[in-house]
């Protein structure tokens, strides 16, 4: 019986070690991406208000190019091009075939509930997101939310107006793969 107890303790310590290693790796990747995004924003500050720069703005896959502030949660997160696992490890992913702020269509951002969007369940209608781009700062107010199955892609597509759509896994405090997605629809505040 003592051997089984010792085996379970060893397994527990190994699991904690693996979790700690992964957590620290995610934290380091996000810090590097945030520094890269802030550098890009500061380097191109002269583009603010430049309509041509806004309409032709492009970034490379995996590049951190913007920040997402969530004032209610006191967070500033890096926005990285792409939504594959490598991009989501670095920060909030931007769906490559959606547009960027001030391009008058759907902007889709996605992130993990247990890394960048921890405490996301505290957000309410009326709360805001602030996206800082090399060509300006954009504030969006959450006006609607919904929960959809994980394979529901109807939330992605043209909306006919500028809408920041932010998604993460749901339920927020579930261990393992979540069956649903939480979707927040936020609209420009000063447009």
TrEMBL record:
Keywords: Hydrolase
Catalytic site: 112, 169
Signal peptide: none
Gene Ontology molecular function, alphabetical: hydrolase activity
Keyword Protein biosynthesis tagged: no
UniProt xrefs under InterPro entries: Sortase (IPR005754), Sortase_D (IPR053525), Sortase_D_1 (IPR041999), Sortase_dom-sf (IPR023365)
Keyword Hydrolase attached: yes
NCBIfam families noted in UniProt: class_D_sortase (NF033746), sortase_fam (TIGR01076)
Name of the featured protein: Class D sortase
